[in-house]
Design a protein that fits this description.
The protein has 287 residues and is α/β, with parallel strands linked by helices. The chain has one domain: Alpha-Beta Barrel (TIM Barrel). The strands form two sheets. An eight-stranded parallel barrel has the order 1-2-3-4-5-8-9-10, surrounded by seven helices. A two-stranded antiparallel ribbon has the order 6-7. Helix 12 packs parallel to helix 14. The chain is globular, with a radius of gyration of 18 Å. It binds the ligand O=c1ccn([C@@H]2O[C@H](COP(=O)(O)O)[C@@H](O)[C@H]2O)c(=O)[nH]1. The ligand O=c1ccn([C@@H]2O[C@H](COP(=O)(O)O)[C@@H](O)[C@H]2O)c(=O)[nH]1 binds next to strand 10 and helix 13.
Length: 287
């Protein structure tokens, strides 16, 4: 029997959002959130918080995005909690996008690529956020390793924080830094686009960036990959903002929300209901 090619991340993401709606639910165990759930801000509290999120989201949302920083804050035992959650979510068929924003010179980037996206990664996620500020091509090991293993990367392009524009709006000759990322991601997705599929190289464009996409003349629809839109909820971004920011690229948008959804815990059913309601509301408005 001829072996079937493994599905790409873009294909798996498209299928997941068609089944569960567009929401990417974040797991960000902020101290204030953990304590508001009646837990102690220590390893036990981190474990309980994460277990509740996994129970609420696994099999119920398209994508879960754990924020690595909150687990790294507890050292190797915190990272073990993160690895356990990644394994449980993926075993339930839920896509995991690890938000670790890795980026370094090529040879070190190769080590990051192996650590998070490679065949022998200890707890490989389905996709990883990466930082391109050492140059788009410095990401090559991550782009190639992800592609080889049916995984994805999300490249920071226009981040949701107000300071991001100092770097991202700057021009390199005729191009803004953000446009360099748009063109770089689009080039990675050429084959998928030709096949009429979603590519596996995505961008991060915050829901809070206002009119930046239009001012910089970015053609986000041409990226042909998923567009992670953090900033929905706690940072003030709304579904209406998504419409304004993304225009005709809306079908590829993956809106991300962490604190706004997590504030519905610690009850598993309450948390799941908030995630579902958020996803349903976004699906209606993005349609
Ligand atoms: O531009 C960016 C890139 C990543 N993030 C991350 O998303 C979540 C947002 O959490 P909320 O609680 O929904 O504000 C967090 O992990 C950020 O590191 C972002 O906000 N903006």
């Amino acid at each position: 029997m001829t072996p079937q090619p493994q599905p790409t991340f873009g294909q798996r993401l498209r299928a997941a959002t068609q089944e569960h709606g567009p929401l990417c639910a974040g797991i960000d165990p902020h101290r204030a959130l953990v304590e508001s759930w009646g837990l102690t801000y220590d390893l036990d509290g981190l474990s309980a918080f994460t277990a509740t999120c996994v129970e609420a989201f696994a099999g119920h949302v398209a994508v879960v995005k754990p924020q690595s920083a909150f687990f790294e804050a507890f050292g190797s035992r915190g990272v073990a909690v993160l690895e356990g959650a990644i394994g449980q979510l993926r075993a339930a068929g839920t896509l995991v996008l690890l938000d670790a924003k890795r980026g370094d010179i090529g040879s070190t980037m190769a080590a990051y690529a192996e650590a998070y996206l490679g065949g022998s990664a200890p707890a490989p996620a389905d996709a990883l956020t990466v930082s391109p500020y050492l140059g788009f091509e410095s990401l090559r090991p991550a782009l190639d390793t992800a592609a080889a293993h049916g995984r994805g990367v999300f490249v920071l392009a226009l981040t949701s924080n107000p300071e991001g524009k100092d770097v991202q709006h700057a021009r390199l000759g005729a191009l803004s830094v953000a446009e360099t990322m748009v063109l770089g991601a689009a080039a990675e997705n050429v084959q998928a686009r030709a096949a009429g599929e979603l590519g596996s190289t995505g961008l991060v464009v915050g829901a809070t960036v206002g009119t930046a996409v239009q001012e910089l003349g970015l053609d986000l629809a041409a990226v042909g990959g998923p567009l992670l839109a953090p900033g929905v909820g706690a940072q003030g971004g709304t579904a209406e903002d998504l419409k304004r920011v993304f225009g005709d690229a809306l079908p590829n948008v993956l809106p991300a929300s962490s604190r706004d959804v997590l504030s519905a815990g610690p009850d598993v059913a309450g948390l799941r209901d908030r995630a579902r309601a958020t996803s349903d509301r976004l699906a209606t408005l993005l349609a």
